[in-house]
Design a protein that fits this description.
- The protein has helices at residues 31-35, 57-65, 99-123, and strands spanning 4-8, 21-26, 43-47, 50-51, 73-76.
- It contains 3 helices and 5 strands, in the order E-E-H-E-E-H-E-H.
- With 124 residues, it is an alpha+beta fold.
- A hairpin with a 2-residue loop joins strand 3 and strand 4 (50-51).
Amino acid sequence: GLGFNIVGGTDQQYVSNDNSIYVSRIKKDGAAYLDGRLQEGDKILAVNGRDLKDLRHKDAVELFRNAGCDVSLKIQRRLQPQNGPVGHRSDGEPSGLPLAAVLVPGLALAAAAVWILLRYRQRM
Protein backbone atom coordinates (compact mmCIF):
# COMPACT_ATOMS: atom_id res chain seq x y z
CA GLY A 1 0.00 0.00 0.00
CA LEU A 2 0.87 3.66 0.04
CA GLY A 3 1.31 3.75 3.80
CA PHE A 4 -1.51 6.04 4.90
CA ASN A 5 -5.20 5.94 5.81
CA ILE A 6 -7.89 8.29 4.58
CA VAL A 7 -11.18 9.66 5.89
CA GLY A 8 -13.96 11.56 4.16
CA GLY A 9 -16.03 11.26 1.02
CA THR A 10 -19.61 12.07 0.07
CA ASP A 11 -20.98 9.26 2.22
CA GLN A 12 -18.90 9.94 5.38
CA GLN A 13 -17.90 13.58 5.62
CA TYR A 14 -14.96 14.18 7.94
CA VAL A 15 -15.52 17.95 7.93
CA SER A 16 -19.15 19.09 7.84
CA ASN A 17 -20.30 20.32 4.42
CA ASP A 18 -17.04 19.06 2.87
CA ASN A 19 -16.88 15.88 0.77
CA SER A 20 -13.07 16.00 0.55
CA ILE A 21 -10.68 13.15 1.29
CA TYR A 22 -8.18 13.71 4.12
CA VAL A 23 -5.11 11.82 5.36
CA SER A 24 -6.04 10.44 8.78
CA ARG A 25 -2.88 8.49 9.60
CA ILE A 26 0.61 7.97 8.23
CA LYS A 27 1.79 4.41 8.86
CA LYS A 28 5.27 4.26 10.39
CA ASP A 29 7.81 2.87 7.91
CA GLY A 30 5.23 2.96 5.09
CA ALA A 31 5.86 4.58 1.71
CA ALA A 32 4.32 7.95 2.70
CA TYR A 33 6.26 8.00 5.99
CA LEU A 34 9.56 7.24 4.27
CA ASP A 35 8.90 9.88 1.59
CA GLY A 36 8.19 12.44 4.32
CA ARG A 37 6.11 14.94 2.34
CA LEU A 38 2.55 13.86 3.17
CA GLN A 39 1.21 14.87 6.59
CA GLU A 40 -1.73 13.80 8.68
CA GLY A 41 -4.59 16.22 8.07
CA ASP A 42 -3.63 16.97 4.46
CA LYS A 43 -6.55 17.22 2.03
CA ILE A 44 -5.97 15.09 -1.05
CA LEU A 45 -7.29 16.89 -4.12
CA ALA A 46 -6.18 14.46 -6.85
CA VAL A 47 -4.44 11.12 -7.40
CA ASN A 48 -2.43 10.72 -10.61
CA GLY A 49 -4.34 13.66 -12.05
CA ARG A 50 -7.77 12.23 -11.16
CA ASP A 51 -9.85 14.71 -9.13
CA LEU A 52 -11.19 13.27 -5.85
CA LYS A 53 -14.08 15.71 -5.66
CA ASP A 54 -17.48 14.17 -4.86
CA LEU A 55 -16.31 10.57 -4.48
CA ARG A 56 -17.71 8.07 -2.01
CA HIS A 57 -15.16 6.89 0.55
CA LYS A 58 -14.94 3.37 -0.88
CA ASP A 59 -14.43 4.75 -4.40
CA ALA A 60 -11.55 6.91 -3.15
CA VAL A 61 -10.02 3.89 -1.39
CA GLU A 62 -10.29 1.89 -4.62
CA LEU A 63 -8.64 4.70 -6.56
CA PHE A 64 -5.67 4.62 -4.17
CA ARG A 65 -5.46 0.82 -4.31
CA ASN A 66 -5.25 0.94 -8.11
CA ALA A 67 -2.91 3.95 -8.27
CA GLY A 68 0.15 1.87 -9.17
CA CYS A 69 3.73 2.16 -7.97
CA ASP A 70 4.50 5.69 -9.15
CA VAL A 71 1.82 7.84 -7.48
CA SER A 72 1.34 11.58 -7.84
CA LEU A 73 -0.79 13.34 -5.22
CA LYS A 74 -2.11 16.88 -5.33
CA ILE A 75 -2.69 17.99 -1.76
CA GLN A 76 -3.73 21.01 0.24
CA ARG A 77 -1.97 21.45 3.56
CA ARG A 78 -4.25 22.04 6.52
CA LEU A 79 -3.68 25.54 7.88
CA GLN A 80 -5.33 25.24 11.29
CA PRO A 81 -5.82 22.14 13.43
CA GLN A 82 -9.39 20.93 13.69
CA ASN A 83 -10.99 18.67 16.26
CA GLY A 84 -11.24 15.07 15.22
CA PRO A 85 -9.38 11.78 15.10
CA VAL A 86 -6.55 13.10 12.94
CA GLY A 87 -3.24 13.22 14.82
CA HIS A 88 -1.51 16.57 14.97
CA ARG A 89 2.20 16.98 14.60
CA SER A 90 3.73 19.85 16.46
CA ASP A 91 7.24 21.05 15.83
CA GLY A 92 7.39 22.38 19.39
CA GLU A 93 8.02 25.95 18.28
CA PRO A 94 5.95 28.37 20.35
CA SER A 95 4.23 31.25 18.66
CA GLY A 96 5.80 34.68 18.99
CA LEU A 97 9.49 35.44 19.43
CA PRO A 98 11.96 32.57 19.71
CA LEU A 99 13.60 32.33 23.13
CA ALA A 100 17.04 33.13 21.69
CA ALA A 101 15.75 36.48 20.37
CA VAL A 102 15.11 37.52 23.98
CA LEU A 103 18.00 35.77 25.77
CA VAL A 104 20.91 36.80 23.53
CA PRO A 105 20.32 40.58 23.73
CA GLY A 106 19.48 40.25 27.45
CA LEU A 107 22.72 38.40 28.18
CA ALA A 108 24.71 40.91 26.12
CA LEU A 109 23.15 43.77 28.08
CA ALA A 110 23.92 42.05 31.40
CA ALA A 111 27.54 41.40 30.36
CA ALA A 112 27.95 45.06 29.36
CA ALA A 113 26.52 46.18 32.71
CA VAL A 114 28.94 43.92 34.63
CA TRP A 115 31.90 45.18 32.57
CA ILE A 116 30.93 48.83 33.21
CA LEU A 117 30.50 48.13 36.93
CA LEU A 118 33.94 46.47 37.15
CA ARG A 119 35.61 49.32 35.24
CA TYR A 120 33.92 51.85 37.54
CA ARG A 121 35.14 50.00 40.67
CA GLN A 122 38.73 49.89 39.38
CA ARG A 123 38.81 53.68 39.11
CA MET A 124 37.81 54.16 42.74
